[in-house]
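Budget justification aside, the reviewers requested a transparent look at the raw inputs and outputs of the sequence design task funded under Objective 1. We therefore reproduce one unedited record. The lines immediately below are the structure tokens for a 636-residue chain.
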């Protein structure tokens, strides 16, 4: 450890973020105390767990607590705990640097959002400690890590640098002392050297903290006889009742909302609160929340997921991934199990039979809650699906045990309504007489699908088509066989059977009539297509490209290539509309002058037009343009 006082500059981005937070982010400055108490509570949780796991750790855990100390004369407020503490390296890493990653992106986002959104971002990046600078001119932190002999002192005015030095006589744990600014009612800056103000904030924001938060009352004045009263003793100012362990009727919505903010670092109220308890062979209690807004990192590879795990109210770990599948990674909350070992790791939890059983129950409860929301609170469900539907659909690939339940709560855009999505159950209710399949098409956007040639025959017949535009849709549709005994059928793959018996008979005659053209075009375009055939799905376009039933779609192929995976090129099927003048004319010309060199160019152009119509990319755009220009020139 260094023996001298060092002055260290904040990172440039961290300095900017500090100033944004101090001057423009938090509208409610009381929140600083909640953040400091939450950090202290986490430190106590970690020490308790460390002492259980490391029997050689020489620490006293008999009276773990937080203490709030107010010095009215010097206008300071200290938040002290006797928890795990920090080493010098941890102080520099965790306190000296605001954000471990993504600071620049956060800054850019903050500059373009309103204050409410900014508050949400701050919570997500875990920088609540720095909210102290809203109410303090100087922040001093003294800490000693459990098991170490020396401590460290950190101090900053929040203006670009901080000092750090060793401290020999620091008590175990962490003490954060704020040199408070003067009260400023216009700036919503309360008098935080007033014990009544501090008690009010603790009761409002931190009453659920499971560790005692103590304050020593002010000493009473001497009596008229001049007798000095006894020194006041510290009082516990929070209830310490674990919210999930209290009867539901004894918990107010405000307490649930505040607990949600504590576990999620979200500034909004939860969309839905879920209570769950089990007794019998193994016991546990769960308090889960569905957020209103998806976190920024929901689709990032290293996003945090999982809920907090406690064992008999002893904190075990944050973000317990074994309790929540990845597609429900947005669920926040707490699970308190009665029968697990306190000395567990993430690897052990993944194999634990009880954890697996709890996980199954949690998943079923979340899905059933969303289903209830769908039927009883459709507006709330719409908010949920808009924010998390894309993530939930990942479960259609990974969670086969709950496939039907996920399909039931899923909504999709469709041709039935331009604004309102539909469930599969609603789709089946609207199916036309004789319709056997649920038709869908994947694509980049609604507009590109609706304008696709593949839609023509279904649109003419009034069939509803699901419009699937999320990247995940490209994957799950190939793994889900159907819904309610109705097969899911892509209108861009295989044959689409929409014809009556009379139409099928006519189509057979046309295939014989066009056999020569089809064979010739199949040979001419052999490098690009695997087959040329007549289409039953086209009414106005001359041609379209379709995949074989089990072939990978072009969009999925493109996605894999974007991820760096080399994929073999899949040849597709070119379908021709026999009633289109261009196709009919090409048939006549090919039968009359089969050796005409221009026929091959026409076939090339027809293939290129079909590829462009679906938003595909030409392998040789310059050749296509040259052929097209030559044809246009000869028409003048």
């Amino acid at each position: 450890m260094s023996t001298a006082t060092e002055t260290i500059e904040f990172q440039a981005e961290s300095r900017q973020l500090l100033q944004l937070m101090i001057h423009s982010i938090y509208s409610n400055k009381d929140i600083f105390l909640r953040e400091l108490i939450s950090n202290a509570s986490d430190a106590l949780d970690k020490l308790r767990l460390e002492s259980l796991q490391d029997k050689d750790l020489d620490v006293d855990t008999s009276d773990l607590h937080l203490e709030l100390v107010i010095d009215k004369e010097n206008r300071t407020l200290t938040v002290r705990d006797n928890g795990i503490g920090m080493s010098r390296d941890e102080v520099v890493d965790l306190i000296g640097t605001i954000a471990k990653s993504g600071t620049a992106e956060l800054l850019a986002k903050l500059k373009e959002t309103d204050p409410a959104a900014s508050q949400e971002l701050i919570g997500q990046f875990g920088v609540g400690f720095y909210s102290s600078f809203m109410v303090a001119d100087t922040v001093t932190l003294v800490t000693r890590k459990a098991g170490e002999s020396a401590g460290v002192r950190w101090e900053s005015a929040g203006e670009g640098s901080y000092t750090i030095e060793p401290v020999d006589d620091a008590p175990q744990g962490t003490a954060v002392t704020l040199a408070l600014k003067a009260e400023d009612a216009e700036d919503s800056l309360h008098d935080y050297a007033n014990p009544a103000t501090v008690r009010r904030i603790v009761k409002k924001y931190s009453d659920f903290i499971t560790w005692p938060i103590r304050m020593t009352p002010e000493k009473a004045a001497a009596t008229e006889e001049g007798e000095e009263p006894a020194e006041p003793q510290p009082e516990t100012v929070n209830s310490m009742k674990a919210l999930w362990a209290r009867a539901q009727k004894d918990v107010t919505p405000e307490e649930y909302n505040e607990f949600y903010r504590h576990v999620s670092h979200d500034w909004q109220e939860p969309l839905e609160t879920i209570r769950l308890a089990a007794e019998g062979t193994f016991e546990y209690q769960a308090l889960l929340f569905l957020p209103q807004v998806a976190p920024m990192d929901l689709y990032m590879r290293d996003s945090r997921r999982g809920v907090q795990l406690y064992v008999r109210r002893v904190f075990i770990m944050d973000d317990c991934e074994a309790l929540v599948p990845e597609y429900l990674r947005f669920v926040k909350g707490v699970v308190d199990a009665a029968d697990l070992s306190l000395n567990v790791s993430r690897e052990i939890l993944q194999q634990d039979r009880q954890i697996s059983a709890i996980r199954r129950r949690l998943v079923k409860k979340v899905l059933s809650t969303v289903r209830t929301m769908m039927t009883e609170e459709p507006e709330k469900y719409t908010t949920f699906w808009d924010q998390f539907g894309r993530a939930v659909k990942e479960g259609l690939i990974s969670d086969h045990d709950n496939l039907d339940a996920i399909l039931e709560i899923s909504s999709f855009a469709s041709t039935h309504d331009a604004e309102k999505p539909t469930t599969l159950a609603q789709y089946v209710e609207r199916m036309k007489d004789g319709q056997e399949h649920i038709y869908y098409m994947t694509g980049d956007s609604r507009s590109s699908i609706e304008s696709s040639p593949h839609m023509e025959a279904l649109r003419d017949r009034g069939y509803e088509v699901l419009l699937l535009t999320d990247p995940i849709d490209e994957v799950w549709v190939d793994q889900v066989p159907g819904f309610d005994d109705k097969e899911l059928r892509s209108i861009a793959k295989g044959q689409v059977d929409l014809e009556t018996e009379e139409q099928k008979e006519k189509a057979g005659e046309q295939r014989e009539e066009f056999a020569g053209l089809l064979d010739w075009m199949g040979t001419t375009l052999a490098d690009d297509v695997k087959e040329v055939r007549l289409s039953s799905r086209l009414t106005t376009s001359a041609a379209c490209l379709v995949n074989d039933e089990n072939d990978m779609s072009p969009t999925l192929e493109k996605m894999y290539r974007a991820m760096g995976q080399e994929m073999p090129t899949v040849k597709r099927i070119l379908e021709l509309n026999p009633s289109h003048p261009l196709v009919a004319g090409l048939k006549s010309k090919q039968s009359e002058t089969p050796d005409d060199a221009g026929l091959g160019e026409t076939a090339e152009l027809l293939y290129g037009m079909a590829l462009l119509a679906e938003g595909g990319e030409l392998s040789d755009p310059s050749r296509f343009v040259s052929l097209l220009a030559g044809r246009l020139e000869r028409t003048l």
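Confidence is low (pLDDT under 50) at residues 99-104, 114-126. The two ends are 87 Å apart (CA to CA). Computational costs for records of this kind are itemized in the attached budget.
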